[in-house]
């Protein structure tokens, strides 16, 4: 049984597995808190096909700092690496 990480982590088992894979606490928590994180499908739109405003909103949702000054390409890179 996974350790309880409190209300900030919704799926403790998934969080633990991601941490064991070497992900940062922030990234593991963000993934474990996504309602459909355990589902497969690959139906998300490519970042390149999204508008800068859509990328900005996604960056805001995941807590990327400095997003307001980023170009579209910088937002894409930040979303892929964060």
UniProtKB/TrEMBL annotation:
<feature type="compositionally biased region" description="Basic and acidic residues">
    <location>
        <begin position="37"/>
        <end position="51"/>
    </location>
</feature>
<dbReference type="Pfam" id="PF07498">
    <property type="entry name" value="Rho_N"/>
</dbReference>
<feature type="compositionally biased region" description="Basic and acidic residues">
    <location>
        <begin position="10"/>
        <end position="24"/>
    </location>
</feature>
<dbReference type="InterPro" id="IPR055642">
    <property type="entry name" value="DUF7218"/>
</dbReference>
<protein>
    <submittedName>
        <fullName>Rho termination factor-like protein</fullName>
    </submittedName>
</protein>
<feature type="domain" description="Rho termination factor-like N-terminal">
    <location>
        <begin position="53"/>
        <end position="79"/>
    </location>
</feature>
<dbReference type="InterPro" id="IPR036269">
    <property type="entry name" value="Rho_N_sf"/>
</dbReference>
<dbReference type="GO" id="GO:0006353">
    <property type="term" value="P:DNA-templated transcription termination"/>
</dbReference>
<feature type="region of interest" description="Disordered">
    <location>
        <begin position="1"/>
        <end position="51"/>
    </location>
</feature>
<dbReference type="Pfam" id="PF23855">
    <property type="entry name" value="DUF7218"/>
</dbReference>
<dbReference type="InterPro" id="IPR011112">
    <property type="entry name" value="Rho-like_N"/>
</dbReference>
């Amino acid at each position: 049984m996974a350790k309880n990480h409190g209300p900030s982590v919704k799926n403790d088992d998934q969080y633990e597995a991601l941490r064991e894979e070497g992900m940062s606490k922030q990234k593991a928590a963000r993934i474990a808190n996504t309602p459909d994180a355990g589902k497969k499908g690959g139906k998300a739109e490519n970042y390149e096909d999204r508008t800068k405003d859509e990328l900005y909103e996604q960056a805001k949702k995941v807590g990327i700092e400095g997003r307001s000054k980023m170009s579209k390409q910088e937002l894409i890179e930040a979303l892929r690496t964060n």
